[in-house]
Design goal:
Layout (H helix, E strand, L loop, with lengths): L4 E3 L17 E3 L11 E3 H8 L6 H9 L4 E2 L2 E2 L6 E3 L3 E4 L4 E7 L5 E5 L7 E11 L5 E5 L4 E4 L12 E5 L4 E6 L6 E4 L8 E8 L2 E6 L2 E6 L3 E3 L14
Antiparallel strand pairs: 1-2, 3-6, 4-5, 4-7, 7-8, 8-9, 10-11, 10-13, 11-12, 13-14, 15-16, 15-19, 16-17, 17-18
Length: about 240
Amino acid sequence: MGKRHLKRISAPRTWPIPRKTGGRFIIKPLPGGQVLEHTLPLGVILRDLLKKANTRKEVKRILHERLVEVDCRTRRRIEHPVGLFDTIRMPTIKEAYRVILDKHGKLGLIEIPLEEAEKKIVRINVKKHIHGGDLQLGLSDGRTMIIKKEDKDKYKVGDSLLIKLPSQEVLDHYKPEKDSWVYIFRGKHAGKIGILQEIEEGLIILKVHEEEIRTRKDYGIVISHPGQEPVIRLVE
């Protein structure tokens, strides 16, 4: 089967697929900007999660007809990687979805309004200066973004950006502050969303319903301003 397939039994535990039925192998996503545990191949999403096709041949036909967008760009390969918080839009049938982690830590989809597919939250993971004094940000989905030197002190690692797709225009900027909503995307609490209570020694303390949980600061992504509701839908 070569490099274009994975054994089902060896696929990441975050993939919501049956392990012992459906064939021995499953499509392997092309390398992308996110870790394999947070990535699904487009063909699996269309066939196994959204049930838009029954066979690989039918999925290929759908993609060949340019009916599917990922992050507002048309994609035509079944192996195209679709990562956490990425959006899938099918304009002809007026449906759009976002990739999330469910309460069990499995990758899944939630339906969103068509216009929301043009918005995405990304976390700033890396910040470095480049030639000329400008700043390069490395974002959680593998993107890079150049920020002018006059704004170099505005952005910090751990902040989040709301960007417009596909242009990458920055629509808003969120910092890890008390009473902000935070989405946990790693660790045993992955898929939970809570209100930030406190930050201490690399940990964040969140209130999730009536429960207080602690997790690593770099396991969370800020999705609102303090006291405001999350800017995009990330939970069912």
